[in-house]
Amino acid sequence: MPRSVSAGENGAYVGDFTGKAKLRYAPSNDGRPDPGEVVWAWVPFEEDHSQGKDRPVLVIAQHRDKLLGLMLTSKDHDRDHDRETRQGRSWLDVGTGSWDRQNRPSEVRLDRILQLNPQDVRREGGALDRATFDRVAVAVRRANRW
Predict the structure, then answer these.
(1) DSSP string, the chain
(2) What residues pair up with 106 in beta bridges, in sequence order?
(3) What pLDDT is stored for residue 81 in this prediction?
(4) Closest-CA residue to 137 (of 78, 84, 106, 94)
(5) Which of 9, 61, 94, 99 fits 21 for a cystine, CB–CB 3.0-4.6 Å?
(6) CA distance 68 to 117
(7) What is the CA radius of gyration of the chain?
(8) What whole-number distance in Å separates Cα of residue 29 and Cα of residue 33?
(9) How many other C-beta atoms can be found within 10 angstroms of the C-beta atom of residue 88?
(10) In this predicted structure, what is the pLDDT of residue 5?
């Protein structure tokens, strides 16, 4: 199990994004995190923003000086779909990619939009293809009632 780290190690978390954002696909092999790319960053736990873990995040937009992203997991939430839905969580399969060294299929969480400081992103893990990103964008808008 990944070790939990405190926000103090990586700076204070500014909170989950609750507004509306313009999603765009713009990956660029320039070493900077761009919408459409999967990056690695510290993600706080929902129940305690001072604790979290390092995980892959799909960047979906920029809002002011922050990146907006969705956390990825290799856990299959199809098996506990009813419980996840009851708890307000929504997931979408995005397949495999270079962000996972074991090449496991990933899911992206649609209902929790993270705000990240670009300088807190530690590395790029790959990019989604355009069709998959477009599917995610449609699902994010639906899940967040945009």
Answers:
(1) -PPPEEGGGT------B-S---------SSSS--TTEEEEEEEEETTEEEEEEEEEEEEEEEETTEEEEEEEESS-TTTTHHHHHHTT--EEEEE--TT-TT---EEEESS-BEEE-GGG--EEEEE--HHHHHHHHHHHHHHTT-
(2) 95
(3) 76
(4) 94
(5) 61
(6) 9
(7) 14
(8) 9
(9) 9
(10) 44
Return the amino acid letter for 110: L
Report which residue type is found at 123.
R
Q: Work out whether the CA dihedral 78, 79, 82, 83 comes out positive or negative.
A: negative
Structure tokens at 79: 């098996």
d(C-alpha 93, C-alpha 139), whole Å: 11
Q: Report residue 98 as tokens.
A: 């270079």
> Rounded to an integer, what is the distance from CA 116 to the centroid of its chain?
10
CA 49 to mean position of chain CA atoms: 15
The pLDDT value recorded for residue 2 is 43
pLDDT single digits (tens) 58-117: 999 999 999 999 999 998 887 777 888 888 889 999 999 999 999 999 999 999 999 999
Question: Left, alpha or beta for 84 (phi > 0: left; psi -120 to 50: alpha)?
Answer: alpha
